Amino acid sequence: MSELGSSDSSIGDSKVKIHAFADVSSKAELGEGVCVGSGAVIGPNVIVGPNTWIGPNVIIEGKVKIGSNNKIFPGTCIGLEPQDLKYKGDITDVLIGDNNTFRECVTVNRATFKGEKTIVGDQNLLMAYSHLGHNCEIGNNIVIANSVQVAGHVLVEDRAVIGGCLGIHQFVHIGYLAMVGGMTRVDRDVPPYCLAEGHPGRLRGLNKVGIKRKNIDKESKEEYLQLKRIWNLLFKSEYVISDSLKIARQESLFQSSARLCGFVELSIGKGRRGPMPSIMSKK
Fold it and tell me: What does the alpha-carbon distance between residue 46 and residue 60 come to, in Å, rounded to a whole number?
């Protein structure tokens, strides 16, 4: 980073470094400390927050707002037209928060229809060649590994970890602190706290590593034991999932169990395909 910055020539505001071979619109808004590398292209409707590093050959076009302290590595393309046959040229948004890292050749497409947004939160890591389709909403503290292809309208909640070389079907919802193993076919919702893996994807159990890192098992052993029991009831018992939910709701639930049940209720409602089944499920 520092080597590229030191070789740049400054244009305009002395606190913004733009390489002489970059193409930055005079209408773009760049905050203090922004550094733009050689061959980068930044369009007129782009706003970039302070101290964001934009590497060589990055393209940022369309109506894009990027927060502070982001690192955008070479070849990344943000805000280009969605890969959606329904797109008719509407001006749509990409909103990106703070402290994100976009590694080499990441693509983030803007939304399809007027008034819609593609959203990336804060402190996320998107590894090389990953793709976010139109209208996706990505929360905070998420890791998306190399070559993950995320279709349109996917929602990923905070602290999820997505393994490499996999595809996520459109409209899929991945829950809080979920873990998806590499090369999994993700065509159903992945509930919070769960570990998913396989082709087709199946729930293997709870994401014990993620739970341990969040200290849920240490802060309240009773909460963790309840979460295990509710998971077994929902995904391992002989009850159909709607009956399992009714049984679970008869007791006072800790936050983690309530989050899990609420996610599953939403997933099976309103015509959705429902949560990913477990590997031992007979339902």
Answer: 7
In a domain, 283, yes or no: no
Domain that includes residue 249, residue range? 211-268
ω into residue 275 within 30 of 0, thus cis?
Answer: no
Same domain, 19 and 130: yes
Domain contains 277? no
Contact 61, 80 (CB under 8 A): yes
Q: Are residues 139 and 227 in the same domain?
A: no
Output the pTM of the full model: 0.94
- Starting at the edge strand found earlier in the chain, the sheet holding 149-150 runs 23-24, 41-42, 59-60, 77-80, 107-109, 131-132, 149-150, 167-168, 185-186
What residues contact 203, with CB distance under 8 A and at least 6 apart? 190, 191, 194, 195, 196, 235, 275, 276, 277, 278, 279, 281
| pLDDT tens-place string over residues 117-135 | 999 999 999 999 999 999 9
